[in-house]
Specification:
The protein has 185 residues and is an alpha+beta fold. A hairpin with a 2-residue loop joins strand 4 and strand 5. The longest helix is centred in the C-terminal third of the chain and has 39 residues. It is flat.
């Protein structure tokens, strides 16, 4: 009987110790190994433009969508980005002699990045999703074939050239009309 009582006590304690010592990964603390290598070091290929993004959300689909949107924005930024920046610094020294004075220093920096680009042909090349505590984390790698990117650039240039040509032709006709009016006078 004593042996049975000892077993009832020892077995739960033993199970607890074994459970605590298991090598099961803690899902609340992702390790550096969870970050894909392609996220830290984007692939380099002369045939593609790459963009990476990461995001978290309580909803799995929203998490993936946010990461993919960030990656697509990175691809679009390769075509051109308008950057505005503002930095402010304020320093003030309060007090009497140097030993008792107090230096207050405040620094503020703000950056605004704007990209306006339509990208066609960008596809999801890689994706990694896992739980991070109570939320999902997604890493997404987007690739855009350079051929598609070059085609988009040529379309933009031709549209710009068309607009410029239309503007110039309108301007030329206006000048011609003015000359005719002046000749009639």
């Amino acid at each position: 009987m004593k042996m049975f009582v000892k077993m009832l006590f020892v077995l739960p304690v033993l199970a607890f110790v074994i459970g605590c010592g298991s090598s099961q990964k803690d899902l609340t603390k992702p390790s550096e190994g969870d970050v894909p290598a392609w996220f830290l070091n984007q692939p380099a290929d002369p045939n593609f433009i790459f963009g990476v993004g990461t995001a978290t959300s309580q909803d799995l689909q929203l998490c993936v969508d946010k990461a993919a949107t960030t990656a697509r924005a990175k691809v679009a930024q390769t075509f051109g980005t308008k950057v505005q920046g503002l930095q402010k610094r304020f320093q003030e020294e309060i007090g009497g002699p140097a030993e008792t004075s107090k230096l207050l220093d405040q620094f503020t920096s703000a950056v605004k990045v704007v990209t306006d680009q339509t990208i066609n042909g960008a596809v999801e090349k890689e994706k990694k999703v896992f739980r991070e505590g109570n939320v999902w984390r997604a890493y997404v790698l987007i690739q855009l074939p350079v051929g598609a990117a070059a085609e988009q650039l040529m379309n933009q240039i031709s549209k710009s050239n068309e607009l410029y040509t239309r503007f110039r032709s309108t301007q030329a006709f206006e000048e011609l009309e003015k000359e005719i009016q002046n000749a009639k006078k």
